């Protein structure tokens, strides 16, 4: 029995066919009406009872399953949650196209050569998906010029395009190579905000009604940015810069342009005068720890060499996904204040890749505190 059904019962509302039928009999008796043939076997009585009870049951179930849940933030559904957000000046974050810059390099540097607007730059296959970005404008190599930096926009509005350096490495121009460098993203790609993340932001917005601004208000402010979730913000309250100071550490989604975001976030905090647990609050990117990982794969002898190479690519991308290099695989991600288990990762890889007989990692479990484990290098070898 749901809480909503219990509320109705406690307030005298019948919620079962038996209870509605009994209430119908009571109303008939109170009104002075008499039906002599009220046997449960009587077709006439069954018809009258159904006419009276069925519409009531439809309305009661509609009330329990669709209407009452919308009155509470914890249970409000997709159709009404944005009305809750509007009530607290907390609009839902919408989907957004990635915008960034890639580097084109040509082999023959003699003469001028134009890379036309709309040129497609794409990744290798990542979990059965190829991600594409297109150039925004015509760009020309001058005579003797070997490299060009050209702005690009993602094919779709999605978080999955926020890939690390080196993923966008293909184009169909003869004699021209391309790559996305470090810090290549100017505007992160984003999916529409998931309902649970939005629910958490609205809950944080409750705190803005108070005159005192503590963690909840700072989370509400910081997480309003695309690429930041409220449950990916951690606070250091121990006066890191003296009395009245606090730090907020943010774990950005994938390869978000953290420095430019932090500059804007900190400017907004300082100019809008949020105060509370710390009169001086500064937002920082979550510190990273870098790790070199060698993964040894032992394959079944029945696999062809081509099959083994394809499976190495899958393992490579799945491990990078676990270390937040891409969002293409449903694997357990590294987190601050946690233990990252390579035993669990091995189990996920076994489920993902057929033909693996064993997996060895050069590292043991990684225990993190106020930091996020990342990969400095990843090598996949065959045992």
Secondary-structure blueprint of this entry?
Elements: H1 3-10, H2 17-30, H3 43-67, H4 81-87, E1 99-106, E2 113-115, E3 120-122, E4 132-135, E5 139-141, E6 147-154, E7 176-179, E8 185-187, H5 195-205, H6 215-222, E9 233-236, E10 245-250, H7 258-272, E11 280-285, E12 288-299, H8 305-322, E13 338-340, H9 342-352, E14 356-361, E15 366-368, E16 372-382
Helix pairs in contact: 2-3, 5-6
The overall strand count is 16
What order do the helices and strands follow? HHHHEEEEEEEEHHEEHEEHEHEEE
Task: Please work out how many helical segments DSSP would assign.
Answer: 9
Q: Helix content range of the residues, please?
A: 25-40%
**Average residue-wise pLDDT:** 86
Q: Distance between the terminal alpha carbons, to the nearest Å?
A: 55 Å
Percent of residues in beta strands:
15-25%
Low-confidence stretches: none
| Radius of gyration from the alpha-carbon trace, in angstroms | 30 Å
The profile of the biggest β sheet is:
6 strands, antiparallel
Total number of domains: 4
Basic shape: elongated
Helix-strand category: alpha+beta
Characterize the structure shown.
This protein has helices at 3-10, 17-30, 43-67, 81-87, 195-205, 215-222, 258-272, 305-322, 342-352, and strands at residues 99-106, 113-115, 120-122, 132-135, 139-141, 147-154, 176-179, 185-187, 233-236, 245-250, 280-285, 288-299, 338-340, 356-361, 366-368, 372-382. It is an alpha+beta fold. It has four domains: 3-71, no CATH class; 99-187, no CATH class; 209-285; 289-382, no CATH class. Strands 1, 3, 4, 6, 7 and 8 form a six-stranded antiparallel sheet that branches. Helix 2 packs across helix 3 and helix 5 (195-205) packs across helix 6 (215-222).
């Amino acid at each position: 029995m749901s809480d909503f059904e219990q509320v109705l019962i406690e307030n005298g509302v019948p919620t079962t066919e038996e209870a509605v039928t009994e209430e119908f009999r009571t109303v008939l008796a109170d009104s002075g009406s008499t039906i002599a043939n009220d046997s449960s076997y009587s077709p006439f009585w069954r018809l009258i009872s159904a006419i009276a009870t069925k519409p009531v049951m439809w309305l009661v179930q509609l009330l329990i399953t669709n209407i009452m849940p919308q009155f509470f933030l914890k249970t409000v559904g997709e159709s009404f949650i944005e009305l809750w957000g509007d009530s607290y000046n907390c609009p839902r974050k919408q989907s957004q196209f990635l915008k960034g810059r890639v580097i084109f390099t040509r082999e023959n540097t003699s003469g001028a050569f134009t890379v036309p607007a709309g040129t497609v730059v794409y990744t290798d296959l990542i979990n059965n998906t190829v991600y594409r970005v297109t150039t925004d404008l015509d760009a020309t190599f001058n005579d003797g010029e070997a490299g060009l930096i050209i702005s690009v926009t993602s094919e779709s509005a999605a978080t999955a395009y926020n890939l690390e350096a080196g993923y966008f490495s293909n184009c169909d121009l003869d004699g021209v190579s391309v790559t996305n460098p470090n810090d290549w993203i100017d505007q992160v790609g984003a999916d529409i905000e998931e309902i649970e993340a939005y629910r958490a932001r609205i809950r944080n917005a409750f705190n803005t009604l108070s005159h005192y601004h503590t963690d909840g208000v700072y989370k509400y402010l910081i997480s309003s940015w695309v690429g930041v979730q409220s449950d990916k913000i951690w606070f250091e309250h121990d006066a890191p810069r003296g009395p009245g100071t606090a730090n907020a550490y943010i774990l950005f989604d994938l390869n978000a342009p953290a420095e430019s975001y932090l500059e804007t976030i900190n400017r907004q905090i300082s100019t809008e005068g949020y105060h509370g647990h710390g009169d001086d609050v500064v937002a920082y990117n979550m510190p990273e720890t870098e790790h070199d990982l060698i993964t040894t794969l032992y394959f079944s002898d029945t696999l062809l060499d081509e099959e083994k190479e394809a499976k190495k690519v899958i393992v490579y991308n799945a491990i990078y996904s676990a270390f937040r290099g891409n969002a293409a695989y449903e694997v357990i991600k590294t987190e601050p204040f946690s233990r990252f288990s390579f035993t669990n990762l091995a189990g996920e890889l076994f489920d993902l890749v057929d033909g693996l007989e064993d997996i060895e990692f050069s590292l043991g479990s990684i225990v993190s505190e106020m930091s996020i484990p990342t990969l400095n290098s990843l090598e996949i070898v065959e045992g």
